[in-house]
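Hey, sorry to bother you again with one of my protein questions. There's a protein on my desk that I can't quite get my head around. No rush at all, and the record is pasted right below.
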Amino acid sequence: MNLRQLRYVVATADHGTMTSAAQALYVAQPALSRAVRELERELGVELFARSGRGVVLTPVGEQVVRQARAALDAVDAIEGMSAARSDGRGAELRVATTPSLEPELTGRLIPRFARDQPAVRVRVVRCGGRDEVAAVLRAGRADLALTDLPVPGDLTAHPFEQRELVLISPLALKVREPVPPAALDGMRLVLPARGGARRAEIDTVLRRVGAKPVPVVETDERGAWLGWVRAGMGSLLWYRNQLDDTEGVAVRSFLPPITRLIGLVHAHRRLPSSARDFLAFAKDAGGDPRGREHR
């Protein structure tokens, strides 16, 4: 018996169908049904009986749900103690991320969240990639993660932002618009330095479209990238929403578009209040591009 099974049973009792309970908990309906059946086998009793299109509690099911509510209330009370500011510090929120998205988290999201929630201490859990993010969430070493989507089906993902990769080039460069990705093959490019997260992102895109450009400048000094482009040294691949000043350069879309979807991800477990607050804040900040959770 575990807390997940108890939460599933209580949710099913509250919602009247396993489908509605699964939707309320952001879990797959088969996973919820399987967990309830496992608990029934473990206890040796039937908790629910079918009634029309839904389910109703059996007499013993009513007793189990009553005790389950008490147990879950006790767990919630214990979790709530971590947010109590008896030592003046407040709750802790652990957010995992990958190297390429850490600047987004630490430079944009966390400072804005901290202004609204000064009592919450946010700790960044650094991961090497998307697979490590998933492992950290499953192990309970982080409450949330900011990562690329999609993620494995045992995690819940809330889309945060869809980014369009564009070509930033000298005004004199003649290229068909919208730009076919194949045009990148042999093109002179200003690129991030080798070995870093930003370069890994661009290299992944280039491999995906089968293009081998000619590196003319390789630097992680992001503030200098557009200067090299304006000087006519080469073009640059970067995200449209992260361009502050496009004077003196041409910004062109690709066809088909090259996009990257990122989101907030968590395991199928009850989130602490600080994580729920951060999730709501991030959805507002990012605009929730698809308007729904992806599982």
Remarks:
- Residues 59-81 form the longest helix (23 residues).
- The CA atoms of residues 96 and 125 lie 4 Å apart.
